[in-house]
Amino acid sequence: MRAVSDRVRRTFGAVVLGVMATSVFGFPAQAQPAGFPDLSKFTAVAAEPYITRWFKGATEMSFLAFVTPYDIGCTFAAPPEPSDFEQGVSCGGAADCVIGLAEPGDNNAGTYQLSHYFHGGCDGKSPGPTNGGSLLAVGQKVSYGHVTCAVDTNRTVACLNTGSGEHGFVLKPSVSWTF
Does 9 map to a domain? Predict the structure, then answer.
């Protein structure tokens, strides 16, 4: 009988430790879709060198801008207090007619949608200029507020916005998609 009670105590202890580990370390509220890069595998860089600030009257305005080695540039809002601020992400530059404005969609789910800029790189038109931001190299990610963007191999740029759930997009020559 004592052997059974010792086994029960050990099992119960293991379950309690497992629950405590779960509550301390947590699990993501929602996993990113299949095919979305694992952002934990990218090297984080400080956001400050990517942020441009100016004043419009008494109001401070700011955005974070980066360019990739693939001549793709992205920007998003970087307000001093980003907690309740919508940070739509815009990307443009040299791509295979798939990059445009990636912004929160019109539905309540807040998913992103891709739309083309007027120059967009489509139909033989010039893809237009990138944003002049600092270089975000392959294997790096930059985060500010609710947004994290990363540059992966194979001309891939991925951004995740956790401001209202987990939404984002992946831009790559073979296929670009949003969630």
Answer: no
Helix (H, G, I), strand (E, B) or coil at 110: coil
145 DSSP 8-state letter: T
* 125 assigned to some structural domain: yes
Indicate whether 179 pLDDT > 50: yes
Which range of residues forms the domain containing residue 77? 30-178
11, 26, 79, 107, 177 from 148: Cα distances, Å: 40, 19, 15, 22, 16
Examine residue 133 and state whether it is found in any structural domain, yes or no: yes
The gap from C-alpha 38 to its chain's centroid, in whole angstroms, comes to 11
Q: Decide if 20 is inside a domain.
A: no
Beta-carbon neighbour count of residue 10 at 10 Å?
Answer: 10
Confidence of residue 158 (pLDDT cuts 50, 70, 90): very high
Tell me, what DSSP letter sits at residue 39? G
Place of tokens 């293991």: 14
Q: Domain total for the chain?
A: 1
